[in-house]
Design brief:
The chain is of the alpha/beta class and 294 residues long. It has a single domain, classed as TIM Barrel, CATH 3.20.20.30. 35% of the residues lie in helices and 16% in strands. The two termini are 27 Å apart.
Length: 294
């Protein structure tokens, strides 16, 4: 397994995320650009499609950007990025587990982890678009978090056992053989996405990390909740160091990034627009300059 190079140098890593589309920079070119500039990770979001009904409100507020309906499959994009890089970690940001078959997804995760030499990060989420989910057969929107947990537990069984089986309320299969197993042992980190406090609780319950957005309509900056998050982890009997925080969508502000570092946030992930290289590379250069000062 290739060890990643620390980008910030003082305890905080820097990643970047983009909806890969047919009109944006390719995953290969962006991955190379990020690795050259010292970024630690590349993240690919997921939406299979956007139903035209649009009954589910966009969690960030306002109109839903068109890139949500135009995103490429994240596992394909990340595999392409893997073959042109050596150190860059590769994450789903996030994989909508409630819309994917767990047996096939377990194979996808293990395959990308093998191809990348153990660099895969499995960012997961239950999703917010009820109509999109229903088109995949998940019609009980209220049970999506239970379904996500069971599917993750089922995948962990597949990744770690020679004869894997799982018997839950929503996921059930008899003993099976399934390879490849992941390169990263016992399996790639499962990093649970979601807002505070409910997403944090799920990450503490069964995750290897937590992905909150920097800001949401219900709060100004999620870093305000870091002391509470650590207290919640300790109350649950977990070491907060075993649940590193990946903060999504930071601003290009040196003082704020240093504050995140001092709060113990492990990684920040820059949200990039789906654009071509001439628009993105100068921005990456700005981030690389700031990274050296954090």
């Amino acid at each position: 397994m290739v060890a990643p190079t620390r980008a910030g140098g003082n305890g905080v890593e820097f990643g970047a995320a983009m909806f890969f589309t047919d009109y944006a920079i390719s995953a290969m070119d962006l991955a190379v650009a990020l690795e050259q500039r010292g970024f630690e990770s590349l993240w690919a979001p997921e939406h299979s499609h956007i139903p035209l009904s649009r009954r589910s409100p966009f969690p960030a507020g306002g109109d839903l950007p068109r890139k949500y309906a135009e995103a490429m499959d994240p596992f394909v994009s990340l595999t392409a990025a893997a073959v042109v890089t050596q150190r860059l970690r590769l994450g789903t940001g996030v994989c909508l587990v409630t819309q994917r078959d767990p047996i096939q997804t377990a194979k996808l995760v293990a395959s990308v982890d093998q191809v990348s030499g153990g660099r895969f990060l499995f960012g997961i989420g239950a999703g917010w678009n009820a109509e999109e989910m229903a088109d995949h057969g998940t019609t009980d929107f209220k049970s999506r978090f239970k379904l996500m947990r069971e599917r993750i537990e089922a995948m962990q069984a597949i990744w770690t056992r020679t004869e894997a089986e799982y018997h839950g309320e929503l996921v059930d299969f008899p003993p099976m053989h399934a390879w490849p197993k992941p390169r990263h042992q016992p399996h790639p980190p499962v990093i649970v996405g979601g807002a505070f406090p409910y997403g944090a609780r799920r990450a503490i319950a069964y995750g290897n990390g937590w992905i909150p957005h920097r800001a949401r309509p219900q709060y100004g900056d999620v870093s305000e909740f870091m002391p509470q998050f650590r207290a919640m982890a300790q109350t649950a009997g977990r070491d907060p160091a075993d649940i590193p925080v990946t903060l999504w969508g930071p601003k290009l502000e040196l003082d704020t990034l240093r504050r995140y570092r001092d709060l113990g946030i492990a990684r920040v992930v820059v949200s990039l627009e789906s654009a071509q290289a001439d628009a993105l590379l100068p921005l990456l250069d700005q981030w690389a300059e700031v990274m050296r000062s954090v």
